[in-house]
Structures are given as C-alpha cells and as structure tokens.
Amino acid sequence: MPHLEISDLITVTDPHSGARLPVHRAEVVEQLNACGNRRAARIVAALPAGPDGVLDPLAVDRTMISVHTELQRLSQELRIGDRLVHLLAPLLAAVRAGAADPGPLRVVDIGCGLGYLLRWLAATGALGPDVELVGADLDAALVGEADRLARAERLACRFVHGNAFDLPEAATVYISTGVLHHFPADALADFFHAQAASPALAFCHYDIAVHRLAPIGAWVFHRARMRHPLGRHDGAASARRAHGDATLLRAATVPGMRPLLYEPRTLANPFCTTLRPVIGVRPHLEAPLRQALGRASRRLVGPEQFAATGRDRLAGAVR
Ligand SMILES: C[S@@+](CC[C@H](N)C(=O)[O-])C[C@H]1O[C@@H](n2cnc3c(N)ncnc32)[C@H](O)[C@@H]1O
C-alpha cells in the first residue's frame, strides 16, 4: 500500500507558476480508498467543498496553517535549528575561508512551510550577519504566514512564494527539513541535479531517518502533541515514506557535488536520531568542512565508506 500524505493530495500547485490548481474532493477520497486508507479518506471527506465538488481553498489553507503550526513543536523538540547550525556553521566557515571576497552568503530553505527554521536562525543570529536567509514554498498560504510571522517579529529573513529553483538570486547553500520524503525515490535525482547545476556551493537536507522504530515514534509524537486528525495522519505516514540512507546517497551523487551523509543509520543511536541530513559540497570544500567540523567529521560519511564498511567497522570508527 503506498503511504500517501493527505496534505500532498489536497494542495496542488503548478510547480512553475505556483498557481493553485482545483482539487476535487471525491477524486482524493477515491484515491485514498483505492489504497485501502479509509481513515485518510474520511478525513478528506469531512473537508468543505463547493457545489462543483472542488475543495474550498480557504478551508484547506486554514487547515494547512493550523497543522503546520502544531508541527512547529516537532522542530522545537528536535532542536532542528541547533542541528542545522552544527553543520552549516562549519560549512559556511569553509566557504568564507576559501574565497577572497565571499560577499553575502545566501541560505535558501526549499519548501520552508511556515519558516520556523529560518525564523529561528534569524532570531538567534546563529549563522552570522553576512548570511541572508530566504525561504521559498510553492504553497502560498504557508509562505504567506511565514512572512507575516517574520514581519511581526521584525526578523531579518524573507519568504517568497514560488519554486525555490526559480529565484532570481542564486543560493550559496540550499537547505530543507522534512521535504525529501514528499518526493518519490525516482524524483530525488532531479531535485539534487537542480542544485548541482546551480551556482550553489552546497546543500544540506534533513529528513526522517529510516528505522523500524521510526513509524512508532512518529505515531506516538503526533498522537501526543497534535490535535488535528490530518496532522496526526500525515505525521505517521511521513515516517513510513522516508527514504533510506542508501537511496539518498545514491540520488545525491550528482556531477560537481561530493555527496555525504551525517550520522547515517550505521553510526547513529536510533533512539536519538530522528532526522539526519544528506549533504552535498563542491569537492574543494570537503577538506575545509572536515577541518572545521573537527572530531565530528568522523560522522560524515561518503559513498565509498558507506558502501565498503559494514555496521561494525563504521561504529568502530567513531568510538
Ligand atoms: C512538508 S512541507 C515542508 C515543511 C517545512 N519545511 C517544515 O519543516 O515545517 C513540504 C513543502 O515543500 C514545498 N516544496 C516542494 N518542492 C518545492 C520547491 N521546488 N520550491 C518550493 N517549495 C517546494 C511544498 O509546497 C510543501 O509546502
């Protein structure tokens, strides 16, 4: 049974124009029933639709904002900001060290949703004043709310409605959280290719680490901390859809980028590692990144280490 997330089915946008496309409630209900997911079908059937059967876009937007607002708790509890800074600060240090005049550095969050991560980075100033923070999302309602929240707190970050790869200014580093599992495995290569083909120097994408405990952990968290049935459903489904380390590393192996995993499953305690990143750096940045990471660089694994070493050898390498 494919693990579908309701949010992907009820918000459909043109990936180029960002225009909202009409979604027929009955079609989504039928699709979910055909997959045997009757609970999800009931959740969608309860959403309001117009006389033509098209889901009410305002009601869908309100639901999405409310679910993502609850979801921010997950980012807070998993300390996603600290985790990203742990890798991004050394990476940006390596970029600054390697360029005569690096100029302003730009971090672009692909699929930023409500922009929690960028707003946290702006509020803490953790990456330094020379780093511009830009969030992009195809969902106009989510990114509009991100913008409203950032303005309310006068935070130095900005949010754009549209495709992150169509921004007028190039990213120095692309980041994302909780986005990769929304793509089918065969679409991941295009996602990484787009970044390698851009002037960006690196990418760092956090997503759910695959482990047999992950679906149970996700279910417990979303049951305990989220109220909306859609959020509870999608939270549990997302852990079942997550891509494994090998799939991500293979997809991120694109020309011009050195693919790396930080704390792959073989090196991680499954009770502690809920999200882990797949990273790509221009090859000349790997050595300075490792140097800036210091001891932690032993947790950064390239494809050859990943393929050639078994669980025990990798685990031994970090003891
Ligand atoms: C689950 S949401 C992301 C949540 C958010 N990062 C967070 O941590 O709360 C995934 C989002 O990715 C967006 N998305 C996917 N591909 C995109 C692209 N190329 N450019 C901009 N947004 C994209 C979708 O519109 C969707 O809102």
From TrEMBL:
InterPro entries noted in UniProt: Methyltransf_25, SAM-dependent_MTases_sf
Superkingdom assignment: Bacteria
Residues in Methyltransferase domain copies: 107-193
CDD domains: AdoMet_MTases
Pfam families registered for this protein in UniProt: Methyltransf_25 (PF13649)
Protein name: Methyltransferase domain-containing protein
Organism from which the protein derives: Kitasatospora nipponensis
Phylogenetic lineage: Bacteria, Bacillati, Actinomycetota, Actinomycetes, Kitasatosporales
